[in-house]
UniProtKB/TrEMBL annotation:
<feature type="transmembrane region" description="Helical">
    <location>
        <begin position="160"/>
        <end position="181"/>
    </location>
</feature>
<feature type="transmembrane region" description="Helical">
    <location>
        <begin position="232"/>
        <end position="255"/>
    </location>
</feature>
<feature type="transmembrane region" description="Helical">
    <location>
        <begin position="12"/>
        <end position="28"/>
    </location>
</feature>
<keyword id="KW-1003">Cell membrane</keyword>
<dbReference type="Pfam" id="PF03706">
    <property type="entry name" value="LPG_synthase_TM"/>
</dbReference>
<protein>
    <submittedName>
        <fullName>Flippase-like domain-containing protein</fullName>
    </submittedName>
</protein>
<feature type="transmembrane region" description="Helical">
    <location>
        <begin position="267"/>
        <end position="285"/>
    </location>
</feature>
<feature type="transmembrane region" description="Helical">
    <location>
        <begin position="127"/>
        <end position="148"/>
    </location>
</feature>
<keyword id="KW-1133">Transmembrane helix</keyword>
<keyword id="KW-0812">Transmembrane</keyword>
<feature type="transmembrane region" description="Helical">
    <location>
        <begin position="314"/>
        <end position="334"/>
    </location>
</feature>
<dbReference type="InterPro" id="IPR022791">
    <property type="entry name" value="L-PG_synthase/AglD"/>
</dbReference>
<dbReference type="GO" id="GO:0005886">
    <property type="term" value="C:plasma membrane"/>
</dbReference>
<keyword id="KW-0472">Membrane</keyword>
<feature type="transmembrane region" description="Helical">
    <location>
        <begin position="40"/>
        <end position="60"/>
    </location>
</feature>
Amino acid sequence: MNRKEKKKTTLNLFILLIFTGIVLYFSLKDNFEEIVSQILTIHPLWFLVGVGLVFVYLFLRSVEICCTIQKFKPSYTFRKAFRLMLVTQFFNAVTPFSSGGQPFQVYTLKKDGLRVTDGTNVIIQNFIVYQVALVILGVMAIAGNYFFHIFKEVGLLKELVTLGFIINTLVVVGLFIIAFARKFNHKITNLGIRILYRFHLIKDKEKQLKKWEESIEQFHHGAKLLMTNKWLFVRSIFLNFVALVCLYLVPVALLYGMGDYHSFDGLLSVVASAYVMLMGSFVPIPGGTGGLEYGFIAFFGNFVKGSKLNALMLLWRFLTYYLGMFLGAITLNLKKKEN
C-alpha cells in the first residue's frame, strides 16, 4: 500500500471503530450483565460449530477462486488462494461497500505471476458468480417470506430489503449486458462521457473514453471466458451458494449454543440472514456497521427477544465480520514479513 492508501485505510478503521463503539453502547447499555452472561455461558461446542461454518465459507470461496485462477496459471496452489481470501476479508471489512478487496486481489495475483489482464478477468468472473449466488438466495428468501409470512414486525425494512434485492438483481443484469452487448455498451459509454464532458465534470474526453472502453473490453473478455466454460460457471455459482448458506447458518448454531433449540431453525436462519445482507447493501460505512446490526435485531427479533437477541447479534457479528478481518490482518502482516 502506498502512503495515500494507508491514510485512507487508517481513516476507514477510525470510522469503523467509532461506529463499533456506538453499536456496542446501544447493545449493552440496558442489560449489560445479562448480555455478557449470555455470551460467556455459550456452549463451547456450538460456538466452534459457528467458527467452523465461517471457515467452510472461506474454504469454499477459496476453492472457487483457485479453480478460476488455475485456468490462467495451472501451478497456482490452494494455499495461496486461501491466503488471498483471508486478506481480502480484511480489505473488504475496512472499505465502504466492501470495495477494497478486488483491487488488492488484482495486485496480489500480479505478484503471484499473473498478468494484470488475467488477474482482472479472474476477479470479474469471481464477482459475477458471487452476485448470481447472492441473488438466487435472495429470490428464495423473498419467496419464502411471501408464502409463509415469516416477518410481521419489520415495517419499512421489508421494503428496503426488496429494494436491495432489486439493486442486486439489476447489478447481475447489468453485468451480463456489459459482458455481451458490446455495441450497446460502447454507445452508452460514448453518450455518458460526452454528457459529463459537456457539464465540465471531466477534463480529457478522449482519455476517459479510451479508459472506459478498455475496461468494457476487459470485462467482456472475462465474462466470455467464464461462459465458454459452462461447467466452471455452474460449479462456481454452486460453491458460492453453499458458502453463503453456511455463513447464514451461523446464527442458529449460536442460538443452540445458548441452549435455545426452539426459537428458530436453520431454514429461518438462512432466510433472515439473507434479508439482513440484502438490506446491508445500502450502508456506506466499512463493514455495513450499524446497518447490519440494526437489520439483525429487526429480523431475528421476530423469533428472539431481550438480552438473548443482543448477545446473539454481538456473537454473530464477531464471527461473520470481525473474525475474518482479524485473520486477514494477521495474514497480511505475516505476508509482509515473508516478503
